[in-house]
Amino acid sequence: MSLGYTIKNVLPWALALSLPLACSTAGDPEGSDEHIGQVSEALTSTISVSDDSYVRSGSAGTNYGSAAALLADGDDAGSELQTYVKFTMPTLSGITNVKLRLRCSNTTAGAYNVRSVANTSWTEGSLTWNNKPALGSTITSFPSAASGSWVELDLTSVAASGATVSVAIVSAGTGDGVDFRSSEYSTTGERPQVVITTSDGAGGTGGTSSTTSTTSTTTGGTGGTGGTGGIGTVPTEANLKIALSEILRTARTGAACSSSR
Ligand SMILES: [Ca+2]
Ligand SMILES: [Ca+2]
Fold it and tell me: 40: pLDDT confidence band, cut at 50, 70 and 90?
């Protein structure tokens, strides 16, 4: 085996090894102490509602579950109108916010209350004024609504993971009716939406209540150690070792770092 042939084959290895050795004092602004920061961004998901409809006191036996609009009004030609909406929360940990978003299509200058509806057995296909479940306490309110805008109703307090949530929108006294797009409206993007926000890093395997997840101290994993060089694959024949050490010695004392960077 000739030495020339050996050196030619070893040269790429020698250069790869000698450069980091010779330049070890140059420093590395992106060196091995760089750490992986903790990720804490919020995540959101959007779901549809399962049922939505409205009821009219003056047509107490009529169902409006397939109508393209959801109506509420304190006095519509002598009738009261109330909107009912129902949805089921997915199973999630770290829920920080739940909003029901409704697209307004008829402006009101008057206020409306969003009332809890504990009985969630109603369906949009059978709901009427006569059989509507009872209204509970007020969860939130809105003072007015403009056609073409989204009304966002904060239901975080009643929308736990996995829960079925039903609410009603009821006039706070106004006779200025409000209309919203329903789940049957032709434009999908204007139908009712439920936007759920969760805190990242609070997930994992759970086991404890997720309601205090904002204090989670989950830390990022430590960075992996740098890989070792490929020395193990260098040929082990004695003549190759000799040739390699000669080249390394030359590279360390040479001008490997003399070029500008
Ligand atoms: Ca409907
Ligand atoms: Ca109106």
Answer: low
CA of 135 to the centre of ligand 1 (A): 19
What is the Å distance from ligand 1's center to 142 Cα? Answer: 22
Give the ligand whose atoms come closest to the C-alpha of residue 71: 2
pLDDT tens by residue, 61-96: 999 999 999 999 999 999 999 999 999 999 999 999
Q: How far is 163 from 86, CA to CA, in rounded Å?
A: 11
Domains and CATH numbers, the chain: 47-214 (2.60.120)
Counting ligands in written order, the one closest to the CA of 145 is: 2
Q: Which ligand is nearest to the CA of 123?
A: 1
Ligand 1: centre distance to CA 50 (Å): 8
User: How far, in Å, is the centroid of ligand 1 from the Cα of 66?
Assistant: 5
Q: Tell me the per-residue pLDDT of 191-227, one tens digit each, with 9 for 90 and over.
A: 999 999 999 754 444 333 433 333 333 333 333 333 3
Question: What's the 186 CA to ligand 1 centre distance in angstroms?
Answer: 12
Q: 89, 167 in Cβ contact below 8 A?
A: no
pLDDT band at 3 (very low <50, low <70, confident <90, very high): very low
Reported pTM: 0.64
256 contacts 14 by C-beta, under 8 angstroms: no
CA 106 / ligand 2 centre spacing (Å): 5
- Which residues neighbour ligand 1 (ion) by CB within 5 Å? 52, 65, 124, 182-183
Q: Is 131 helix (H, G, I), strand (E, B) or coil?
A: coil
